[in-house]
Amino acid sequence: MLRSMDLHRAVNRVSLVVLVASLMFGTSASLRAADHRDAPTVDGLPEGDITDVFAFLDPNDASKLVLVMNVNPFAVPGSSSTYRYSPDFLYQFKVDNTGDAIEDLVIQVQFTGTGVPQTVQVFGPAAPPITGARAVRLTGTPTVSGSTGQILTDSSGQIQVFTGLRDDPFVFDFSQFTRILNGSQDVFRAVTSPALGALRGRPVRADGTSGVDTFGGFNLSTIAVELPKAMVRGFSSRINVWATVSRPQVEVQGGANSQIFVQFERMGQQAFNTVFGTSALKDTINFTVPSDDVANYSSLVPDALTTTDNDGTGNTIANRAVVLNTVGVTALPNGAPLLLPSTFVNTSRDLLRIALLPDVLRLDLDLEPANLALGQFGLQNGRRLGDDAVDIALRLLRQLADVKFPTGSGLPGSGPTASRAALDCSVLPSCPDRRVLIVLQGTDFIKPDSDVADLTTSGNDRAFSTAFPFLANPHPLPGDPGTVGFPVQQ
Fold it and tell me: N or C: which end of the chain has fewer CB within 10 A?
């Protein structure tokens, strides 16, 4: 996550394929990192800017569900006391357990006070009084209440809540990503391709890595809730999860609890808005709801390759693998191994649209906590803190997203675009759409090469906790024990 606010502005944080998608489908000028500062409205409201959302089963107790949303991106350790939650905002986790992308249950979180610590009150899970982009506060006794900065438990001992500073778990070489987009670099790691020649990128360092985690060394404010998964289960084991932030707009008769809140920020998968939203659309996406995503935003997502040729040049999933092998980027140290076998079967050009829309995290409550279930019913199964969301997206997109290669080159995909929604690489090796080069190697090489194939670990700069709230402890003041220096080679 780029610090100086401007660093984050190039890409949105990534929902697996979302991040990759942002790399490939969003307009480069409007991309931001992950979901940090992803739209004009939240640029000036860091305490309402959702950077990431996570939904996963407790690795120590699979009967428990953990939900996490993070705000206040790029929190500098030296200014820890200045990062608060807004007492004016309504923070919500939304859960759809009927499959229609409309919330059936909500968990509402509100704060009071402007000092540190603040007081937090959590209500739910409960059926919301109204659904959609407008919200009303739940009434009654809070499920959990207390001070920020400590783990709080409800009276039954079943629900835990933590709000406070934590290390930012998002990992991505955003600086190099930006260089590739602007044409000063070609790929994440320098390589001489047998097919494309020398491609400019970062050199390999002595520790076997080449990428730099732009977000390393920064904190953020987290809202984490753990509860029995039975509390959110519906007619099946699968749920959809997303988070929203709303602010009051109209006071109506009936007292404080009748106040209407209007949504100005939302997030499900990593980086959907950053990836696909143009400048004109970013706020609109945040103001709207998942149940309208398919109708509103399907045209923003490119076609997926299938097992059937779509342009008369053999433009199939199997032949895309041949192209990547020929370029020399499917074996380390030049690139990550292919994620999908060349025999992977897909018959729908809408596969990526189906995986990305609606913009929600899809979690199967009956799968093992560590099971990524890549591509089985979306990009992945929920999202764990350590999931390498960036590499998952890069590796899926390089094999599945349709690309227009130079006419007459004989390459699979060099035929007429006709009705194809394809990325533009009609000039080699530069590619007018530089995002094709971003996904080429399938990794940003932040982890040592020995770990690149493991998509369950992202190479975060601090070790995650083994107990709730699971996020790593925040970075201390510069110079204190445990300090992680900001990367020099940005």
Answer: C
